[in-house]
Amino acid sequence: MYKNLINLFKENEGKGAVGAFNLHCFEMLPSMIHAAEKLEVPVIIQTSLGTAQYIGFKPLIAAVKALAQESSCSVALHMDHCKDIDALKEAIDLGYSSVMYDGSALSIEENIKNTKEVVAYAHANGVSVEGEIGSIGGAEEGVVVEKDAAMYTKPEDALHYVAETGVDALAVSIGTTHGQFKSKAKINYELLTELKAKLGDTGLVLHGGTGVSDEDMKRCVREGMKKINVGTELNKSYIEVVSKTFTADDVTPLTSLRGLLAPANERIAEIITDKASLFKL
């Protein structure tokens, strides 16, 4: 079934966090949903604006909806880290079930003002909204936040932001970094506990999931994270498998492009299975 974040969180209440996996190309899509289906967990397919424009909004949305309709698991399609309000409205109009407005680089009042506009438009169309307070460092899809510019989410700012905007989910900065896969993230658990206590039912979101150890991932889920993003590992692994397959002696010259892509898609399914298993309580 095709759902928004609110419905996925309700469906998964008491079962852990919902995995949100970045789609980087059309070919990944079926394996992502099939992996979630086999594990019997809901899944969030999320894209950057760049990926949506590369694939095309309409074919992307149509494909996700068709696969969700045939699947036994619940599926959301989420626009991740978008600063363009007009683009978010287009995504909502065309059928995304969830969007994220990223105004984290703005003053808190300007962030609130813009987020309120997105929330009003989205909720009128049955679409959920994720916002962000604090700045999560690293690079993702061409968006770079320098380490010195990254900052922890302040609980008082988060409470003010949620109360004013009515967002359904909130990306918080507690020590993770986008694009991190060479070193281990250092999670500020005291901050996570305080944010959970202050924000109540608002779905807390962990970005930069690739750099989080398995032990930390499980603890983040136990302590209240509702959505966990994984992107860098999927992209990196897909490229590695395709490169390895392309240069293998037994497949060159290739007789079919499927022979090049199938192993990469299988690797995507493996990663999603491994990660989503960690997100279950």
List the helices and strands and how they pair.
Blueprint: H1 5-11, E1 18-22, H2 29-39, E2 43-47, H3 49-55, H4 57-70, E3 75-82, H5 85-94, E4 98-101, H6 108-123, E5 128-133, E6 137-140, E7 143-145, H7 155-165, E8 169-172, E9 177-178, H8 189-199, E10 203-206, H9 214-222, E11 225-230, H10 232-247, H11 258-278
Parallel strand pairs: 1-2, 1-11, 2-3, 3-4, 4-5, 5-8, 6-9, 8-10, 10-11
Antiparallel strand pairs: 6-7
Helix pairs in contact: 2-11, 5-6, 6-7, 7-8, 10-11
Walkthrough of the structure:
There is one protein chain. This protein is of the alpha/beta class. The protein has one domain: Alpha-Beta Barrel (TIM Barrel). Helices cover 47% and strands 18% of the residues. The protein contains 11 helices and 11 strands. The chain has an 8-stranded parallel beta barrel, surrounded by 11 helices. Helix 2 packs parallel to helix 11, helix 6 packs parallel to helix 7 and helix 10 runs antiparallel to helix 11.
